[in-house]
């Protein structure tokens, strides 16, 4: 059993962790009955589902009840999956979130200070078929991610961010939160690598002989070696994985699965999440460090409000509007004029990015 103290001091998103009975601290729970309730409530709603090819993903539409049936026809060669960040609401959503371990419930993303500027969906509902795998990716906002499996078996692999891995994966930035601006307010990483490109073995699954052959990204440098994962685990029904979202990761579905994915931002990583938004929106790294150091003694609500106001002004306003916001913040924090300027030599160029995700699973593991 994990205590709140142990979680805060040793675990809490520092490395991948597998929790058993994660939704049963308040007593036993019937995930099958909950799934049937979801289908009963939303079964006729038209949703998007994905069919993955070798390098591209095709998106189609059908009522949720029909999409559920189509996923059952998934295979390794033609995997089918469904993910939806906006389906669940009200009592259906609360029935799950109210069972999340108490030491994981602090989440600034879902508090008013953050939601005033940026809205992050609280949970992603997913259905994976046999042979489905997520895109090979690292999440945006540098959050702590979690994924609870309601039925089925999945294989997870994670890679720390290292130069040799980045060379083999050849990831590109993918803008997220693009409602207000086409370049987004944050950005994840995606790669055309596939850790599960080929599977060898009859009826692969936990406890049965099988192996995977990875495919490095076709964008990788010649001769880039495929690195072994730093962490790997098989997740079974009722188990939750909690992990650093900024690590590279990819998931493989051994059979039909139903899962819920989410994330949180607590005191331990608040500055990291704010830095992500500030830097992606164009505030220079040195200015970000100075700003967050000065804000560090303020209440979290103040840190969030001031950091996101500057980030959004930099991204969304014309140069004179962004300059006014910087001058206001410099005066308020007692900083020298120009201390929060983007750069002494003008705005820093953004890193290479893709305009759109390749598939529905780019922002999270299925």
From TrEMBL:
One of its GO terms (cellular component) is cytoplasm. This is JmjC domain-containing protein. Residues 340-366 are annotated as: Disordered. It comes from Alexandrium catenella. Residues 89-281 form the JmjC domain. Coiled coil: none annotated. InterPro entries: JmjC_dom, JMJD6_ArgDemeth/LysHydrox. PANTHER family: ARGININE DEMETHYLASE AND LYSYL-HYDROXYLASE JMJD, TRANSCRIPTION FACTOR JUMONJI, JMJC DOMAIN-CONTAINING PROTEIN.
């Amino acid at each position: 059993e994990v205590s709140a103290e142990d979680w805060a001091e040793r675990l809490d998103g520092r490395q991948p962790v597998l929790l058993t009975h994660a939704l049963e601290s308040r007593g036993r729970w019937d995930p099958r009955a909950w799934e049937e309730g979801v289908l009963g409530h939303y079964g006729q709603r038209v949703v998007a589902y994905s069919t993955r090819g070798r390098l591209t993903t095709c998106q189609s539409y059908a009522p949720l009840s029909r999409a559920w049936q189509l996923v059952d026809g998934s295979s390794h060669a033609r995997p089918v999956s469904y993910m939806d960040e906006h389906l669940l609401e009200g009592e259906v959503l609360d029935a799950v979130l109210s069972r999340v371990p108490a030491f994981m419930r602090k989440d600034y993303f879902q508090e008013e200070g953050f939601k005033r500027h940026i809205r992050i969906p609280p949970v992603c509902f997913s259905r994976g078929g046999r042979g489905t795998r997520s895109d090979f990716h690292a999440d945006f906002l540098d959050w702590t991610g979690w994924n609870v499996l309601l039925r089925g078996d999945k294989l997870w692999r994670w890679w720390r961010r290292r130069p040799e891995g980045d060379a083999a994966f050849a990831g590109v930035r993918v803008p997220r939160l693009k409602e207000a601006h086409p370049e987004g307010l944050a950005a994840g990483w995606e790669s055309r690598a596939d850790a599960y490109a080929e599977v060898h073995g009859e009826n692969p699954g936990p406890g049965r002989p099988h192996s995977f052959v990875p495919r490095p990204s076709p964008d990788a440098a010649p001769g880039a070696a495929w690195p072994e994962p730093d962490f790997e685990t098989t997740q079974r029904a009722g188990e939750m994985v909690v992990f650093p979202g900024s690590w590279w990761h990819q998931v493989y579905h051994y059979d039909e699965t139903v899962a819920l994915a989410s994330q949180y931002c607590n005191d331990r990583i608040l500055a990291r999440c704010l830095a992500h938004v500030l830097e992606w929106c164009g505030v220079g790294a040195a200015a970000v460090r100075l700003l967050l150091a000065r804000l560090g003694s303020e209440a979290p609500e103040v840190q969030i409000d001031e950091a996101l106001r500057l980030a959004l002004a930099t991204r969304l306003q014309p140069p004179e509007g962004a300059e006014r916001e910087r001058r206001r913040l410099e005066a308020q924090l007692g900083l020298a004029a120009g201390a929060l300027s983007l750069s002494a030599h003008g705005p820093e160029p953004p890193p290479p990015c893709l305009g759109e995700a390749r598939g529905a699973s780019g922002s999270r593991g299925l």
